[in-house]
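Board notes (copied after class):
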Amino acid sequence: MPASEMFVMMALFSTVFGLAYLIISTRHKERMAMIERGIDLSAPKKQSSPFLKKLAFLIAGVGAGIFFGGVFAAVTPFEDAACYFSMIMVGGGGSLLAHYHLQEKKNEDSPFDLDL
């Protein structure tokens, strides 16, 4: 392996290790400061992010699009690239629409009226 490739690999691993160390040490310092101030560490946990739910829906839709693109390419005489691309877009868009409708239904069930 040439020296330049080894340098890149060492830099990559050093960066990953450095970032992991920084995150862990910062979290430890924050927790120790909270203990010194008497703050309860079992404070309310964060709810899952709507962004992560949307991303999960999108990834699932793209996966379904890839699958159906393969099926569509095998069954029809169209080009493979067109079948895959169109089904990925349809699957991703459909999953985002499903997420939007589920989010709207959740907001309608909310007891709070947030119309400003």
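Comment from the instructor: Residues 58 and 92 are 5 Å apart (CA to CA). Residues 50-108 form one domain.
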